[in-house]
């Protein structure tokens, strides 16, 4: 079964995302660490969409689908904003010193690190980011 | 999230709860006066911090860079293992002082 949440492209809507995730964590009986990692990946990916997918446009939809099959959790984030593959973004250089380290640029890196698999596609005018996590 | 600040030459910021994209906005407002104030050392007590997102990590970097540029220091203490893992993944454990 897939559970779906629609939010608008405003940061305040993240509270609805957190509540959705808390409910799902209960349904799937996710242990605390796993739940925290999934929340982090989801928050980073959705924040990215909120901040960048719809420049200067308000009241736009972002769809989040969550399902679980064979102990693999699948989260799909869909928006109809500007086509953008976040996975192509250059990875941050973790070896840089404090002075050289840019402030920011870590969100998508965290998504990739925390999830088992992350893929992006663009079809029908939609950005579709699919993240999976093995939860056994 | 609850933010408690004890101001002084050594300023202690105690965070309780989740430092996410939204609560980071609240913390950011508290940080600016600390960086401009009399504090020579800033300590972030993470004993009750249960979550951190990239927005929170960005603030740790702001504190570290800000304190260093005014000749002071910044360190973290009582960081829980879930948070420590995120600091390790992002390489922050190498650039921050963690007790």
TrEMBL record, chain A:
Residues 8-133 form the Histidine kinase/HSP90-like ATPase domain. Keywords: ATP-binding, Kinase, Nucleotide-binding, Serine/threonine-protein kinase, Transferase. It holds the Pfam family HATPase_c_2. It comes from the Bacteria. Gene3D superfamilies: Histidine kinase-like ATPase, C-terminal domain (3.30.565.10). One of its GO terms (molecular function) is ATP binding. This is ATP-binding protein. It comes from Parabacteroides hominis.
TrEMBL record, chain B:
Pfam families: STAS. Transmembrane segments: none annotated. InterPro entries: Anti-sigma_ant (IPR003658), STAS_dom (IPR002645), STAS_dom_sf (IPR036513). Residues 12-99 form the STAS domain. NCBIfam families: ant_ant_sig. Belongs to the anti-sigma-factor antagonist family. This is Anti-sigma factor antagonist. It comes from Parabacteroides hominis.
């Amino acid at each position: 079964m897939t559970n779906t949440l629609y939010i608008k492209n405003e940061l305040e809507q993240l509270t609805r995302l957190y509540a959705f995730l808390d409910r799902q964590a209960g349904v799937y009986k996710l242990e605390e660490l796993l739940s925290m990692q999934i929340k982090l990946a989801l928050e980073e990916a959705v924040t990215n969409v909120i901040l960048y997918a719809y420049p200067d446009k308000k009241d736009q939809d972002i769809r989040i689908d969550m399902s679980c099959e064979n102990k693999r959790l699948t989260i799909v984030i869909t928006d109809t904003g500007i086509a953008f593959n976040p996975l192509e973004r250059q990875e941050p250089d973790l070896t840089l010193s404090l002075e050289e380290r840019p402030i920011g640029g870590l969100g998508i890196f965290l998504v990739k690190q925390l999830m088992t698999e992350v893929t992006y596609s663009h079809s029908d005018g939609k950005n579709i980011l699919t993240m999976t996590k093995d939860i056994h | 999230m609850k933010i408690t600040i004890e101001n002084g030459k050594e300023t202690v910021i105690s965070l309780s709860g989740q430092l996410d994209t939204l609560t980071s906005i609240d913390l950011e407002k508290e940080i600016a006066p600390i960086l401009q104030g009399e504090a020579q050392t800033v300590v972030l007590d993470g004993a009750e911090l249960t979550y951190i997102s990239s927005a929170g990590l960005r603030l740790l970097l702001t504190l570290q860079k800000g304190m260093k540029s005014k000749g002071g220091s910044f360190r973290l203490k009582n960081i829980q293992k879930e948070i420590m893992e995120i600091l390790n993944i992002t390489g922050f454990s190498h650039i921050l002082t963690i007790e």
